[in-house]
Fold peptidylprolyl isomerase.
Amino acid sequence: MKTTADRIEKNTVVLEIEVPQEKVAKALDNAYHKLANKVNIPGFRKGKAPRKVIESRIGKEALLDEAFEILAGVAYPEAIKEQQIEPVARPKIEVVTLAEDQPLVFKATVITKPEVKLGEYKGLKIEKKVDEVTDEKIVEDLENLRNRHAKMIVAEGAAIENGDFAIIDFEGFVNDVAFEGGAGKSYPLQIGSGSFIPGFEEQLIGAKSGEARDVKVTFPQDYQAADLAGKEAVFKVTINDVKRKELPALDDDFAKDASEFETIEELKVDIKNKLEKATEEKAEREFRNEAIKQAVEGSEIDVPAVMVESRIDNMINDLAINLENRGMKLEQYLAYAKMDADALRESYREAALVNVKTDLVLEEIVKAEKIEVSDEDMNAEVASMAQAYGAPVEEIEKIVRQQGHISALIESVLRKKAAQFIIDSVEKA
């Protein structure tokens, strides 16, 4: 087999591959036997019809096409290995010569993995910023916990204020005609929540239980029900009750009810400890992300568009799986988000480009630093996956082997080790 390579663009190579005639003849014979077992010829048992009969039935071109698939399936992988090319997409194939009495000649246009010129990735100077846990933040968390344990009580004779819950009956009219979906009974509407049409909630402020009000609104131009978008409407509203939150006192009894602690002081200490842990984890996450970001931004890479498109495909597929796990189809999500498939792809484009660049830089660092994966590294990764999925380690190992994911897992571990190499070498400011 002969192979020549012509780099026509930065990340595009055209391979011209020539396969000897004797291999073509052998492939044609294999193609004949393969097709003979699929074609029913009257007067012959399946697979026993002579080659000339098969050719006359299906045509010489079909036989040659089958032979080409057999030959190219071997020749192309050998060619990219010989030329030390890493494709990032399926090649574009052009047959030059395909005949029984001649060598096979075909061209494969290949998009290759881009060259990565590493910038600074060792000894980066990065400051790790840990937010201070202030008394205000502790009070805010305590108030949130207090609100979660609040009771709703009827505010007898009270006028509705912002934050109150108005228990209402309502019916909406456009041009004095009630419209579908515009009515409700004993609906608990929190004033100021913004859950109703703009302007609706504010018009209930000051009303009391038993009072009736006409609320005049205009539906937004982008309202989900097209027949109501932009139209003026009147809602006839009756206030059944006004309810308010009754917050528990911040005392030891509250601490016992809302937590495993006996005193309010113990609860405050626990809140402070959790906030300190959360801020430390956030700072560490941002520190690591900044280190990787700087290493990537300092590198030079011309990323082929096909790699970005492929990553977008993967991201959308992950989104679809996550949505299905929550009982929603991707099409429903797009409708809810008022977005079409093209807009969704564009929303992922920038992140996809950054992700591809990051992987390429980490892979190049693996080569530059001669990073390797040990059995211990693999065992730790499988154990981490098992913990994440809540499955036994043995089951994850079995899935990885059966689905042929060992190489992908090794590459993932190598990239993680390269990322850790960057982080470990940072000179903290």
Notes: The chain has twelve helices and 13 strands. The chain has three domains: 2-113, 151-246, 265-428. The mean pLDDT is 92.
